[in-house]
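Quick one, T. Sequence first:
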Amino acid sequence: MRVGLHGGFCEKGRTSVGIEAAGRRVLLDVGIKVGATGRDYYPLIDDEAIRSLDALFISHAHEDHVGGLSWLLSRGFRGRIFMTAETLAESPETLAHYGEREHLDAFPLASGAVEIFEPGDVIDLGGLRIATGRSGHVAGGVWFAAEAKGQRVVYSADVVSDSNVFVMDPLPPCDLLILDASYGADPISGRERAAAIRQWIEARPDGCLLPTPLSGRSLELMAIMPGRFAIHAAMRAALEAQLVAEMLLPDAIRLLRQRVAGAEDWRDGDPFPSCPLLTDDGMGRAGPSAEAISLADAKGYPILLTGHLPEGTSGHALHRQGRADWIRLPTHPTLSGLVDIWSDAGKPPVLGHSCLLGALEDLRPHLPGLRTDLATGDFIDLKDQ
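Structure tokens:
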């Protein structure tokens, strides 16, 4: 089995992993890198390899996992495309925000070209089997386990083992684990960070802006809201679509159905409300947040950022200038979660994706199997057992 590291290794963004085994070639995710330009915006895979792919599997609809789909089609990909129904429903908006117009116009995502699977399904491509499981990151989000000739490689995509909202299925034992290391060795738990966010909101009774991705963290934030709150009206349908019983913890779905139903609608041009306001996306680069962040900054309406802030985004600039606060709400594993996931998978050799080299080096003492000598563009050949 050959594994290609096409994006997301010693870097954040353009996450993409290639698997070649049993005469089959598949790609797991095809993300973009926010803040990059030109060829660095997309996974590092050449056109010949793209044309030889049998299938593409998408873990979820965030830009660093699906944003390069139309680009991939423009480079000659004609294989099968696999997604969950939730990912398919959310992908067109992500592509509209993060894809290049020439690619989107020429190669739009056609729902009829997508093969739908459910988390827990196993897709057999003839000698190469791709198992799936719930990721705990977003509704419809999954991890992948590729198996052929007695070897198994697990690609976690984005996972959260201790979410207060989403269910994560355990990763199976494997010969190589490609693990979501987005936060490196960050030891602060989601519970602690959630309490800090709640306190920050309570200290601003006249209202505040919380930019957030449309899926995933939006529900995590709503679950910790201390009182009334508002959402951009355009988010409502997408939030309601994420309330899938099979994806959410039982207590969470009851709470979130109440929270979504009770959220106040806010529209562009309305005065800012005297309560927390959620708009998407989380970086201020796209969606309603692109305008809302600038307007809130101009009017002195407090801004709290809670996720990744790539250089070149409005969120990054405002935080750097001290005009917006930042408290990370974990939607990826923190240190204890990483150790538990790796241990449960049998303590195999492990690669961390979505993490810079310095943070990986900090993590290595906690994960003795972690390799830090490989980066985007490298390949690994697993020996036959």
